[in-house]
Write a structure and sequence with these properties.
This protein is mainly alpha-helical. The protein has a domain of 68 residues. Helix content is 65%, strand content 0%. The N and C termini lie far apart (116 Å). Part of a complex composed of FtsB, FtsL and FtsQ. Its main location: membrane.
Amino acid sequence: MRVALPSSGFDGWRAGVAHVHPLLPKLKTPSMRLLILVLILLLAGLQFRLWVGEGSLAEVHGLKSEIAAQEEELIRLRARNQELQAEVMDLREGVEALEERARRDLGMIKPGEIFIQVIERKAQQTTPPEVKR
């Protein structure tokens, strides 16, 4: 009668190694070594392209940030275009906007008005002047 004793797991490991052991002599052949070398070089080449080469992760990240910046610029320019379009419509339809523009940009006045231009002084320095010794 056989009694089963609890295993430490070491016996299972030995059984697994026994299955791999017959493959080890085959790795010693020159054709297998060449195949392993080719696979390692292929893996290294793919890793290089992934991290450094054209279309790498760094390049993709840079392009995505560039696209985001361009989209922000596009939003800003569209808002500016809408403002300019509204101003054009206002100038075409209203006399008040045209009159305001002529007064502000060209300095024009109505007959009977007096033009007064106020020139503001620059802010004086807050630091005391230097004393010569």
